[in-house]
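Dear support,

We are seeing what looks like truncated structure output for some complexes. This example has two components. We would appreciate it if you could run it in full and send us the complete token output so we can diff it against ours.
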Amino acid sequence: MTKLNLWKDITRKWQLYALFALPLIYIIVFKYVPMYGAQIAFKDFNVTKGITGSPWVGFAQFERFFHSHEFWRLLRNTLVVSFYALVASFPFPIILALGLNYVKNERFKKSVQMITYAPYFISLVVLVGLLLQFLDPRTGLVNTLLGWFGLGPYHFMAQASWFKSIYVWSHVWQNTGFACIIYLAALSGIDPALHEAAVMDGATKVQRMRHIDLPGILPIAVILLILNTGQMLETGFEKILLMQNPLNLRTSEVIDTYVYKVGLVSQAMNFSYATAIGLFKAVIGFILLIIVNQTAKQLKQESLW
Amino acid sequence: MHAMKIKEAGADRLFTIVNYCVLTLVMLIVLYPLVYVVSASFSSSSAVLSGRVWLWPVEPTLDGYRAVFKNTMVVRGFMNTIFYTVAGTGINLLFTVLAAYPLSRGDFRGRNMFMLLFVFTMMFSGGLIPTYLLVKDLGMIDTVWSMLIPGALSVWNVIIMRTYFQTTIPGELLEASQLDGCSDFRFLLRIVLPLSGPILAVIALFYAVGHWNQYFNAMIFLKRAELYPLQLILRDILVQNEINIDMLGDAKTAAARQGLRELLKYSLIVVTSVPLLVVYPFVQKFFVKGVMIGSLKG
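Here is the complete output from our reference environment:
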């Protein structure tokens, strides 16, 4: 009876299912088939035998990775660069939004917004190209400036110790404006009555910012921080790859770039080994995301009072 | 917002001054590198090399742009990128609407299951190598399809669009149309899409930016240089510093070549970045909508 009703209901709305078919096939083919293919991490993949035909080797690929001398360096670089980027890029959009919120001149406000959005639309290739041009030891602007003070020239891009800071601060330059949008929206959602009452009581702008605006956007800031922590390991692989050179590899090689090199670049392409390393990171990332989402959920409930 | 015509008190005045100064500084920090690049691209190569360019073009010339547009690789890359961006964004929008509309309907049976199936792919992926092997098995390597199909859909954008449909298309509208015998196809095409202009514009921009700036997929999937998008050619020139000697044909001496090489980089950066930088201000007012909906997740 109910089964019959269900079937009737579905056939009556067959058009919705017809619409949905194409994206569903896409997701299955391009997202789930690779997950199935990831089993080669536990196999000794051989192109002629294919994914299912290759022999199982258990955790051998993973053991090889954990025992390789690259392991700790890759893990450390990945965690340090992700965490540095996460922490450094957190406060700036909030500060920018708080400042913009007190600008009465609409035209000035719009200009600041439009200009700070711009870097977001520049490609990573161009961004890294800009870094190389500006930091060039002979013709770069930065070294010309430093030269006036009798400093340098420094070959920034060739020094392993500089890599992380250049990566992170260029990220901040590129993304702060765009990331600020959400805080501006949250600020515009704060009840104006709160501000009016505070003005009546003689509160200064700094006090209102401290006691009204900041608490008002705190929930969304915390949620975003937590969500970004969940996505932490996903950031920046394509940019890091562009910034890499043989001289900074010591600090710039991360798990994702290593997977790319082992799997698709090196002479002895090793699909199984590369997939195992990638899977290791995917699992860590997944666990991180689950923990973080649980935390966010609990906080969301708490922040509702 | 605050109707205060009263003169600001001392502390507030100071705050306002400091605030405007800091924001101006922020604006300059963002703007200066961009202005410098544009000015350098219009300056003479000797001025760029000797570091005499600060703000405005020095000894203005169009040498850099001439070298850029004379180069067949760059021009072809530009054309390829336009094609990948237009065709790719079209496919993206089609797939996104097709997925988002049924998922937005409360009476779409199985939608929670489908939603889970979609969202899970945001949290876990098979990884680079299995995806590469799939694209290879599908025979897409070194074809334009590898630039268009593997990234045909972003689940994140599906969620944004689904939420938009749910919150802006009134349920009564659907009921009324159904009473009039309107089919789901017609309703989507005639009612839902015309009401979704802003969100379609934002999502189209997000996708288009992704296509325009894409280099990694092109690097791993494409082998033939005639299929290369602009970013890949740019990478060779800007990052790998591999410049074809033919591109510097006009320059006779080694010093002149070195100069033109630098000039060419600045001109290329401008040529590549200008299209997006011209377009985004037009869609800017809709950003808030797209970003807000995305963060709330429905």
